[in-house]
């Protein structure tokens, strides 16, 4: 039986972090990407809460985790410290960590800065453009997206983002969305401006501490969606895997595979984590 979710808030310097705990078992912290929040993992959590205590949260500045003052530029170190505070407050011993997109960048930084709190980090399609042999095209693309936001607004910039990354179908809600998913989409849409103004460039320019991550503890897994082949995000993930000296692991779906195919995605994630836990 899947236990009832528990929602709470954790005070951290400069913000208050909304988080939910689901299920029972080894601790698994899931970190959403960019403007997303805990709600995007609803389907995935449903598949995993019979085996894990899943901690899902809204990163500071997103949705239900407001700043205690004016919005600040996204700082990956601060976000990693927030994640560490959640593990320390809620978790039982080292946690497994799954982060997607910008959340994968945070997870990588968490593993480098707080190695004792992390057993395995699964970095799903991190935008590690700065590790590419020639990141200029990707850097210019991120800058162009930011300039589109500055000159033409949120809607134009997000339309460009979805189109540039082969995610055009995610640009608008569908009429058949169930209430919970519609609520999540509404909250996440409200985060677009903060992400474009304060999060896009810091997450894009972040360079993981490869030397710390290569130490072998925590274990680092680079996950790339099967349907992301040929997309820029595949090249970024492969660049990270090459620097770490590990083979990338194929996961179902594309950049949003955890949402579009949660059952198979959860199975892949569980298999990956089981290697470390020896379950």
TrEMBL record:
Transmembrane segments: none
Entry keywords, A to Z: Hydrolase
AB hydrolase-1 domain sequence ranges: 26-159
InterPro entries: AB_hydrolase (IPR050471), AB_hydrolase_1 (IPR000073), AB_hydrolase_fold (IPR029058)
Keyword Hydrolase: yes
Keyword Hydrolase (UniProt): yes
Single annotated GO MF: triacylglycerol lipase activity
Pfam family, one: Abhydrolase_1
GO biological process: glycerolipid catabolic process
Superkingdom classification of source: Bacteria
UniProt cross-references to PANTHER family, sorted A to Z: AB HYDROLASE-1 DOMAIN-CONTAINING PROTEIN (PTHR43433:SF5), HYDROLASE, ALPHA/BETA FOLD FAMILY PROTEIN (PTHR43433)
Record's protein name: Alpha/beta hydrolase
């Amino acid at each position: 039986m899947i236990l009832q979710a528990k929602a709470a808030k954790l005070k951290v310097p400069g913000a208050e972090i909304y988080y939910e705990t689901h299920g029972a078992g080894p601790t698994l912290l899931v970190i959403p990407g960019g403007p997303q929040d805990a709600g995007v993992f609803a389907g995935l959590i449903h598949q995993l809460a019979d085996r894990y205590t899943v901690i899902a949260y809204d990163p500071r500045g997103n949705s239900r985790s407001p700043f205690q003052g004016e919005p600040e530029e996204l700082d990956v170190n601060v976000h990693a410290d927030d994640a560490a505070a959640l593990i320390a407050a809620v978790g039982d011993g080292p946690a497994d960590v799954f982060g997607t997109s910008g959340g994968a960048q945070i997870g990588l930084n968490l593993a480098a800065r707080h190695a004792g709190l992390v057993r395995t980090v699964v970095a799903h399609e991190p935008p590690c453009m700065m590790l590419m042999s020639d990141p200029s095209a990707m850097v210019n693309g991120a800058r162009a997206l930011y300039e589109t936001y500055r000159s033409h607004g949120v809607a134009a910039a997000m339309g460009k983002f979805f189109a540039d990354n082969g995610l055009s179908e995610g640009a608008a809600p569908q009429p058949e969305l169930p209430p919970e998913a519609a609520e999540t989409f509404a909250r996440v849409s409200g985060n677009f401006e903060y992400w474009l103004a304060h999060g896009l460039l810091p997450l894009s320019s972040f360079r993981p501490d490869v030397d710390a991550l290569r130490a072998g503890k925590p274990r680092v897994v680079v996950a790339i969606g099967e349907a992301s082949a040929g997309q820029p995000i595949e090249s970024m993930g492969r660049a990270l895997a090459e620097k770490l000296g590990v083979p990338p692991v194929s996961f179902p779906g594309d950049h949003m595979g955890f949402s579009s195919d949660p059952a198979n995605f959860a199975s892949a994630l569980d298999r990956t984590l089981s290697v470390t836990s020896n379950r």
